[in-house]
Amino acid sequence: xxxxLYATLIFCWDVLxxxxxxxxTLLQSLFHQIRAPKAKCLTGEVAAVVGSGRGVxxxxxxQLAALGVKVACIDVNATDNELLVKKIHSSGGVASAFECDxxxxxxxxxxxxxxxGSLGPISMLFHSCNVPSARSLVTEAPPIxxxxxxxxxxxxxxxxxxxxxxxxxxxxxIVFLTSVAGVSGLKHQMPLAVSQFAxxxxxxxxxxxxRIEKRQHTIHTTLVHIYPFIITDHCLNDIRLRISSAFGRxxxxxxxxxxxxxxxxxxxxxxxxxxxxxxxxxLRLLPRRASLLLRELIDTGILQQVHDVTSxxxxxxxxxxxxxxxxxxxxxxxxxxxxxxxxxxxEDSDQRCQxxxxxxxxxxxxxxxxxxxxxxxxxxxxxxxxxKMFHFALDDLRERKIAHDHCVYHRGAQVPLSTVWxxxxxxxxxxxxxxxxxxxxxxxDFRRINLQDYAWIHFExxxxxxxxxxxxxxxxxxxxxxxxxxxKVKISVELEKPRHSNLDLLVDGVDVVFVGKDFARxxxxxxxxxxxxxxxxLHPGSYIIIxxxxxxxxxxxxxxxxxxxxxxxxxxxxxxxLGAGDTFVAGCILKLxxxxxxxxxxxxxxxxxRVAGQKLAIFGFDGIKRD
Length: 627
Hints:
By secondary structure, the chain is α/β, with parallel strands linked by helices. The chain has two domains: about 40-300, Rossmann fold, CATH 3.40.50; about 325-615, Ribokinase (UDP-N-acetylmuramoyl-L-alanine:D-glutamate ligase, 3-Layer(aba) Sandwich), CATH 3.40.1190. About 45% of the residues lie in helices and about 20% in strands. The chain has 21 helices and 24 strands. The chain has a nine-stranded mixed sheet with strand order 16-15-12-19-20-21-22-23-24, sandwiched between helices. A seven-stranded parallel sheet has the order 3-2-1-4-5-6-10, sandwiched between helices. The chain has a four-stranded mixed sheet with strand order 14-13-17-18. A hairpin with a 4-residue loop joins β22 (about 545-550) and β23. The chain is elongated.
């Protein structure tokens, strides 16, 4: 009896202590809502930022460096990472770039060792490489294995390599970043939602492990929920929110600033925006039907633009010819600033132009414009600047229904510009190009596309020749698989700029090679026929070569080494020759892609020459159509 009474008193005492602690904790939380706790100093910390190449990870790295943190920038995209480190160095910060596949245990171990040797022991870990972009959440079905490896397995590998050393130092902070998919799931994104829920479970388990080991006061953890649809980035103009005025927009640098502020106060859980956490908890408390109604109210997606009947009919007709697949053009997208003059301005002179305009340019970009005008489903893959000026090009792509979901945006890069003088006296043009720091596409950028979506992939010859060769060989390898024999992707390349490295693009498996007059002359050839013969001798094989020679004619050779000559169809008055070559190339690609079984190459050349003739008679590309 006495023992029972004693046990009861002990239990009551424990309950009382817990209640007192509970109310003290509640009062402390309320106080911190009014007056935030003092932010800890981060100077001298060593932070590993995983996924630093783009998005919130990029801004986290920049802002941490500004606070005196030594930043290890970790990303698979070496180009973006190096640019970020250069930017940090220019601001007086300390940072190093590390290229790492975080799904590989060997690479993670090697990278962690390299960071410790370069910057010192890691005391902070920010894992942001599985926070998706808004567009990917609503348009792309992520591959299951890749999603789970990047979103879950990489966390375990990083913790395994870093957490034991934090425990030895009795100092550290681990930040887990997840998206809204880990709060309430997301339609059509099951693998992503599962990986994000798993990160929350990993966070809870890590927190509990540290509590049991009584390390929660020396090693801190923070879970961050990000709602990607309100993070302003380069491709959100057609993302819709049901109640857009209520949600507003948050810049990614502002989101990073809020995350760092919460980390400095050792907050356990943060949401961007702040009310997201409350909404997610509310959804779980409400009955299922009420929760679904609230989700419908806060709906998100892609704005659907209505095509006119003629365009829709043309798209459907072309889709049947290409089996519903797209034509992908890989290369440059820039802005052309065009001045139309009576004649070329003399040096050191001052004259007024007749008219001027801005126009989205670049060979691959122009190819897409013409293909879209001719009714083809097409897509552009290029490097983009995130500058406000480039919104002009983005708006034009959207207006013309040219897909560009896989394009790569580069923070802080300048917009490539081309200044063009058009002479009304001759119809010819002079161009001065400017592209100081926009990186070329990488093989990792290309690997993100699904080859099954395309009937034809066209490559503009650029300075990243070795990378383009990798891209082409990956398509050839895909084409050779037994399961893809009935849906092979056709490959074409354009050799235009006068550089020897373009010859490396003559890769086995390429179906069509377009040779520009400038490149042919650079190689020492005086005619199209001579250029084609030289290239065939240099790289024998069963492939098509097409060489337009300006206003003279076009010469081509088919797979059976049969020669073709096609006259041009210039208009009575040549108004604008800018993009005429790109128009001809696009016409050839479309006609070759549609010809099934393949007809004579003369039909293709005839079609492309007439389309190019249309282009010469008009300013810009509007008005190009099928005869």
